[in-house]
Amino acid sequence: MATSVKLNDDMKKRVQHLADVRHRSAHWIMRQAIQDYVEREEKREAFKQDALRAWEDYQRNGLHLTQTETDEWLSILESGDDAELPTCHT
Q: Tens of pLDDT along 15-52?
């Protein structure tokens, strides 16, 4: 599918400069930029949807972990050890 994008002269020059220094085509730079943007925004949207579901679950059942419990669990993981996720409670 062919798509056209209109860029102002300044952006065209910036893309071309980046393409030149990276030994790539301007087309490759633009495709890569779009791909990176879409992947980042998809992850951001998934995170947002997960957070909304978690909030709805919390409102429904009150189950949660305290910040201290979470910090302790994450510290264990950061040290390279395996640790079970603490059990949520009300």
A: 999 999 999 999 999 999 999 999 999 999 999 999 99
Domain extent listing, the chain = 9-78
The span from the first CA to the last CA of the chain, in angstroms, equals 52
Closest CA to 63 of 27, 88, 33, 28: 88
Nearest to 33 by CA among 43, 23, 45, 25: 25
Task: Check residue 35 and give its pLDDT.
Answer: 98
> In degrees to the nearest 10, what's the CA dihedral of 13, 14, 18, 23?
-10
Whether the predicted pLDDT of 2 surpasses 90: no
